[in-house]
Design a protein that fits this description.
single chain
Length: 354
């Protein structure tokens, strides 16, 4: 490496990255505890809900059976009610009213006649002649009273007939309505029992769901912590990269030398990528260097593929998380073997991908 002024040392963000990792692990642990608690509560609530359902559903079926029986009784009783209703209408007919009036007059006349005969017998027992003018006048007065009483009795009999007919009609109507209302009440009770069971089931499910979803914000905070750690790692890399760039601009000739060698090897890329490769020698292309080793030039080949042939999304992910991923696989030989096999299919040899 050529001589030149020393670049300032890049500030280390490792402590902040480590603290972010610890906090992220704690937050995810809290989220897992909340999720476990939510699952336990869901089991407990489901047990209570099952007990409620075991009571409410049989009650719903029982009320439904009662409602069906009451409705059947109503339908069977309908012809009887229709007959009673017809009888009620007939009872208050004009013919029935006239019959009751006539009967009342006859009953009143019979009562007066019985009283008159009893009075005559009493007078004769005392030796009094009922045919005398004085007693004839009393007899006519009694006949007049009889006529008034008969008329009053006839009117009262007609009114009673109308009243009884009306009351009979109401009784028949109330009887039918009572049976039908009883069937409706049974149906409503059945529906209420079923609704209560459904609400219990939905309430239990909603309670358990809210407990489980309460863990989601905690997971979100955990992911935010992971992203924060990644951002800090990226910032640290940027600082180091800037330090490397300053160091290279201060006089390093390694990039140009490698660029010349690569130019000879790949026919034309050469000096155009020399500076970029030189910037990666001291610190960069972490995963490929971890997989192949610093002394194996294949990591440089993979770097060229990543920079000039790889999809944009892969380059972004690699640049952003590569250093941290390289630390992760450092002691995991099997994973590095798998990655090495895949990288071998991407490196450039004589300008071609194999």
């Amino acid at each position: 490496m050529g001589k030149g002024s020393s670049a300032p040392k890049a500030p280390s963000l490792g402590k902040w990255v480590d603290d972010s990792d610890v906090l992220t692990e704690e937050i995810i642990g809290w989220a897992q505890e909340m999720r476990t608690f939510g699952a336990q509560e869901q089991t407990r609530i489901q047990s209570v809900t099952d007990q409620v359902m075991d009571v409410q559903l049989p009650a719903m079926n029982m009320f439904m059976d009662w409602a069906k029986k009451d409705r059947q009784l109503y339908e069977e009783f309908t012809p009887v009610m229709e007959g009673l209703a017809q009888a009620a209408l007939t009872y208050a007919s004009p013919e029935e009213e006239q019959r009751q009036r006539s009967k009342a007059i006859q009953d009143t006349s019979a009562a007066y006649e019985a009283q008159r005969q009893s009075t005559l017998r009493n007078l004769e027992s005392y030796g009094i002649d009922p045919s005398q003018a004085r007693y004839q006048s009393l007899d006519r007065q009694a006949a007049s009273e009889q006529a008034l009483s008969s008329a009053l009795a006839a009117n009262q009999a007609g009114e009673r007939t109308q009243m009884y007919g009306h009351q009979l009609g109401q009784a028949v109507s109330g009887l039918g309505q009572g049976i039908n209302q009883q069937a409706g009440a049974g149906l409503q009770a059945s529906s209420a029992a079923g609704t209560a069971a459904l609400n219990s089931q939905m309430g239990g499910s909603a309670g358990a769901y809210s407990m489980n979803t309460a863990a989601l914000p905690m997971y979100g905070m955990g992911f935010q912590g992971i992203r924060q750690g990644a951002d800090l790692t990226s910032s640290e890399f940027s600082n180091k990269a800037e330090s490397t760039r300053l160091s290279q601009s201060a006089g390093s000739g390694l990039g140009a030398a490698i660029g010349t060698g690569v130019g000879a090897m790949f026919g034309g890329v050469g000096a155009g990528v020399g500076g970029a490769i030189g910037g990666m020698i001291d610190d960069g292309c972490w995963v490929a260097r971890e997989v192949y080793g610093n002394d194996n030039p294949k990591w440089l080949y993979f770097y060229l593929w990543k920079e000039f042939a790889a999809p944009n999304w892969f380059k972004w992910v690699y640049d952003k998380f590569g250093e941290r991923f390289a630390r992760f696989i450092k002691s995991r030989v099997k994973i590095k073997n798998i990655i090495r096999t895949w990288m071998d299919t991407k490196i450039l040899i004589n300008g071609e991908t194999r």
